[in-house]
Amino acid sequence: CRSCLVKYLEENNTCPTCRIVIHQSHPLQYIGHDRTMQDIVYKLVPGLQEAEMKKQREFYHKLGMEVPGDIKGETCSTKQHLDSHRNGETKPDESSNKETSEEKQEEDNDYHRSDEQVSICLECNSSKLRGLKRKWIRCSAQATVLHLKKFIAKKLNLSSFNELDILCNEEILGKDHTLKFVVVTRWRFKKAPLLLHYRPKMDLL
Prior knowledge:
Elements: H1 2-9, H2 35-44, H3 48-62, H4 74-86, H5 92-108, E1 117-124, E2 136-140, H6 145-155, E3 164-168, E4 171-172, H7 179-186, E5 194-200
Parallel strand pairs: 1-5
Antiparallel strand pairs: 1-2, 3-4, 3-5
């Protein structure tokens, strides 16, 4: 888990399993959140996700902080729901269905807001394309360069996102690079936001 890795990497710069060097001086910056594995574990182990969320809430409440990703009034409404259920004001089936639908709606409307976020400035460096009205955006660190290409193409009414190149430090970025990868490899030790440029695609010979 992350807490074990952080403790280990405070004194070491190698992988605890295979002993390969992660990074000579900043191994902690290369810890990635494996959400796929986490989802699989949550599905395999009954009640684990609920227990983890409970521990997280207790931890933040003990520090007197707001729980990250919490919707205001959510705790209050949950308490009211439990109190009314205990008093027999609602039918068990009805309350269960309502709770399930609310959870599903909340999950569907998350839009990766609970992910690590990256602030970006998108500048145009070509006279053939116009600049964006709103060039400052904030999105998930798991978003890829391809997502940015599609976003820019939609905003500029381009026929295809394949007509664009996105650059960082004058270097063309691969479409499958995540923004987290770009920040770690090309924007380390620089202040936010991450500055990216876009231009019409150039065919290199």
